[in-house]
Amino acid sequence: MIKLNINKKSYELDIDPNTPLLWALRDVIGLVGTKYGCGVAQCGACVVHLNGEAVRSCVTKVSRAAGQQVVTIEGLSPNNDHPLQKAWLELDVSQCGYCQAGQIMSAAVLLKENKNPTDKDIDMAMEGNICRCGTYMRIHKAIHLAAKMQSKDSK
Amino acid sequence: MISFTWLSRAGLADTPKGIALPEQWHELTGYIKITPDNIIKILNPNPEFGQNVMTSLPMIVAEELEADWKKIVVEMGPHDNVKLGPQFTGGSNSVRMYWKPLREAGAAARHMLLQAAAETWGVPVEELTAQNGIISHAKSGKSANYGSLASKAATYPIPKGMALKAAKDFKVVRNSQKNVEGQKIVTGKPLFGLDYRQEGMLYAMIQHPPAFGMKLQSFDASQALKMPGIKDVFTLKLYEDGFEQGGFDTRSFNDLLVVVGNTTWEVMNARKKLIVQWEATGDTKDTIAGRGTKREVIVPGALETTTAQLEKMKEYAQKPAQQLRKDGDPEAAFKNAAQVIERTYNAPFLAHNCMEPMNFFAHVTDEKALLAGPLQAPAWTEPTLAKLLNLPPEKIEIQMTRMGGGFGRRAYGHYLHEAALISKKAKAPIQLIYSREDDMTYGIYRPMYTATYRAALDANKNLIGFHVKGGGIPEHAIHANRFPAGAVDNYLAEGWQIPSNITIGAFRAPRSNFNAAAEQSFLDELAVAMGKDPIELRLELLKRAKDNPVGKNNDYDPDRYAGILKLVKEKSGWGKPENKKYSRGVAAYFCHNSYAAHVVDIVMKNGAPYVERVYSAVDCGIVINPDAASNMVEGAVVDGIGNAFYGRLSHKEGAPEQNNFNNYRMIRHSEAPKKIEVHFVQNDIDPTGLGEPPFPPVFGAVANALFKATNKRYYDQPFHEQIPQPGSTLDNKKRLG
């Protein structure tokens, strides 16, 4: 049995401890917001937070996540109102939308650690997230906008 | 269990907690359903793959219906070609082909509601107005919402030929509306094919041969079957010998080795334990039927290697080819020319690399079949499915999920057929999943292309002859009647092709995506040779094509073509001193009924060329949803830069040399422009399509800007490898072909 804490909810899973967290989330628990894109930590579609750090769930074994705090896109904000989610909607970032959960989860860690990132900071933090539709410019703008929203909220 | 909801609300803020499904819907045309308590639902008929039709198509209905957009509920329609039209996403056709039917549906439903009000109140229908979902009678002061009239309205026959609104009166269309599924996307709701779940569903993967030209010989599944969670391993034939395939039944491999199990991970692991022997297919035969014809195609069995393919293309380029168009006397023009410029361009196979790999859910029983997943054209896939399952089409239901990208790849429904056959044999609901490696190495690629362009100049540097000879594996890309055909007195277009077992398919703006790269680079070089500004040269040629066109069947409108060049010239500040710090390249192209031009601005970043900003001008007629349309053009720009710089799928002995994003380079955040300014030509032309047209000219504009940045011309994609690296002497040596 592996004990997982996902989005502040406890799960006990009877699975191979080597199972990547991605497939435990998607196929066993049924949280499908975290996406499969490459399986080899190249595209970022599967990014989740492990104790507040961005990890690629496709190469993170569930055994590593056992007893830790896991947050997925479904649990990023209690009311779907994370500044990034609001900014994404405000700027209508998405095209197909498949990569966007991973983009947002990567950006959330960036914004937590860097309240006012520059374009270069964003490039560095987001380089591991591929968007095949090419929404990179809007993602940048949305991250800047979310940073503004965040600083306004905290004042 | 996951609740897979197909409903989305246009006014997102109104219902953060989701929408309760009402019981009673009154149908007013196949696209519109209204409840007595005034919920107005519009069905989106066409598959959504990121082009935003879930929003833009219902907007067209809402416009003529005179409904309040913010209160509209949108739902992905079922596969029903009788009620909901052709239902295919491709060829930049979604808005173009639905523009009229959806307007007519909205207008018809509005009329039915007006008629219901007129009868209820006993007043002439002419005295009524419909606005924001409310019908009013000014004389009596009566008013009613659509919901209260829907049950009566639904009893009337659907009227035909109702007057449509004038463009100047549009209130929904031409005003940016948010993506109706935006909220679901950013909160990780189940939307995509891979998110589809059903009780008792199993997962399946196919082990396909490692190379084109190989097939399954034998296998030992004993180890795989012992792996945890594994239900079965079996083989299947996709199409029996002599099976009549439809035009979109392209498939690379026919003998399927299938692993079925409880979770994706367990199936992936077990698949690694299969011991498989492969053998050469030798030449094989396909029977392609459709549109009343039937033909047999021999597929060569050779295991192909990219370097050898390039050599072969060079050899074929010297041979006589099929003449596609000839105007005047091109032979004489080239013979008498004072100067001949000749350049050859090459481009590799490209993989679509949709972020969501191919997949499909299938639950097939003896009586019926339910399928759900990402597909661009159910009507192109279902007839073959019906034959494969021996079920009548009415027993087959195909649900269209949101697609994680398409780009042409999902017009080919082999993976749906495979899923159905697997479900039937496994006697269980299954989801077929392609791993990224399966997806990238499966084929259905953008073809490999080459083209040689020649221009004849007289002593005064006038263009007197133009010749293009294009080839490819397995098809050439030449559109013989495109610009500059029609603008040059002596013109010749020729094409040739080499058959191959490497399968190909439509890839965003098929053929055009290579033509625009080659031709627009060539015109840039021509402008230099002729001592002209590249935009002015194009405008002069277009003026000739308008005033005194050469030949027949020129398939572009010179005015609209010139219009985008003038617009991009103005918006980019072309030739203005303040833009001197940029290495600028321009290109324009017409395809899929629309026109697009780009000015690409390159700067050197860490010693390497970087596209920092792009100006785009597009004429696609009326723009339904301007901000989303800009987003799509921005995406096309990034897609073009990415594929021009990095895109390549190569082969060795039939095996693809790239199989995931570690060796197939995709454009990433730092490589994408920080500014893309999109301008649409404002006119009242019915929409002419947008998904593809902005993509092809990006390649040419990038090549032309790279020339300015590095003083070197780029003839072979991908460009990245040929860009002189800081401190290296790498140059033309690495040139392919």
Describe this structure in words.
- The complex is a heterodimer of chains A (155) and B (737).
- By secondary structure, chain A is α+β, with helices and mostly antiparallel strands.
- Helices cover 40% and strands 14% of the residues of chain A.
- Chain A has six helices and five strands.
- In chain A, a hairpin with a 2-residue loop joins strand 1 and strand 2 (9-13).
- In chain A, helix 3 packs across helix 6 and helix 4 (100-113) crosses helix 5 (119-126).
- In chain B, helix 1 (53-65) runs parallel beside helix 3.
- Chain B is globular, with a radius of gyration of 28 Å.
- With 737 residues, chain B is α+β, with helices and mostly antiparallel strands.
- In chain B, 54% of the residues are buried.
What structural keywords apply?
heterodimer; A: 155 residues; alpha+beta; Ubiquitin-like (UB roll); DNA polymerase, domain 1; 2 domains; five-stranded mixed β-sheet; 40% helix; B: 737 residues; Aldehyde Oxidoreductase, domain 4; 3 domains; seven-stranded mixed β-sheet; 17 helices
